[in-house]
């Protein structure tokens, strides 16, 4: 968890992805910055990439939630890091189920 204020996160939602998970909805503006649905599918990080009629995409990392392993989490992070907010996420004891790759997206070079 990055500890961003909800108000800031919502205000910036068309500039930075609010987060990522097993299934992530990516708005059109961010999908375009990542190369579009075809480029996202080509990363190999997603089991399914479903274009939405409004222009965004639904990204499903693995076939099942059980398959969302640390390796899959890293793949999603690598694919989405250009549109993720800066900062290193920290463990939140209130939400131990949240999965994340512990790196600063703004400093990640692959």
Brief rundown of the structure:
Helix content is 27%, strand content 11%.
Helix and strand content put the structural class at alpha+beta
Largest pleated sheet = 3 strands, antiparallel
- Unreliable stretches, pLDDT < 50, 5 or more residues? none
Supply Rg: 13 Å
Strand ordering within the main sheet: 1-3-2
Instruction: Estimate the global geometry from the Cα principal axes.
Output: globular
* SSE run: HEHHEEH
Could you estimate the helical fraction of the residues in percent?
25-40%
How much of the sequence lies in strands comes to: 5-15%
**Total number of beta strands:** 3
N- to C-terminal separation? 21 Å
How many helical stretches? 4
Number of domains: 1
Output mean pLDDT: 92
Descriptive tags:
110 residues; alpha+beta; three-stranded antiparallel β-sheet; 4 helices; globular
Describe this structure in words.
By secondary structure, the protein is of the alpha+beta class. It has one domain. It is 27% helix and 11% strand. It has helices spanning 6-11, 28-33, 36-42, 70-80, and strands spanning 23-26, 48-51, 57-60. A hairpin with a 5-residue loop joins strand 2 and strand 3 (57-60). The longest helix has 11 residues, at 70-80. The radius of gyration is 13 Å and the shape is globular.
List the helices and strands and how they pair.
Layout: H1 6-11, E1 23-26, H2 28-33, H3 36-42, E2 48-51, E3 57-60, H4 70-80
Antiparallel strand pairs: 1-3, 2-3
């Amino acid at each position: 968890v990055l500890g961003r204020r909800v108000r800031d996160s919502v205000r910036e939602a068309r500039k930075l992805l609010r987060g990522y998970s097993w299934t992530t909805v990516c708005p059109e503006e961010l999908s375009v910055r990542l190369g579009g649905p075809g480029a996202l599918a080509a990363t190999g990080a997603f089991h399914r990439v479903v274009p939405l009629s409004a222009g965004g995409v639904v990204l499903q990392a693995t076939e099942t939630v059980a398959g969302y392993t640390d390796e899959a989490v890293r793949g999603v992070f690598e694919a989405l890091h250009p549109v993720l907010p800066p900062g290193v996420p920290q463990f939140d004891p209130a939400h131990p189920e949240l999965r994340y790759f512990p790196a600063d997206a703004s400093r990640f070079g692959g």
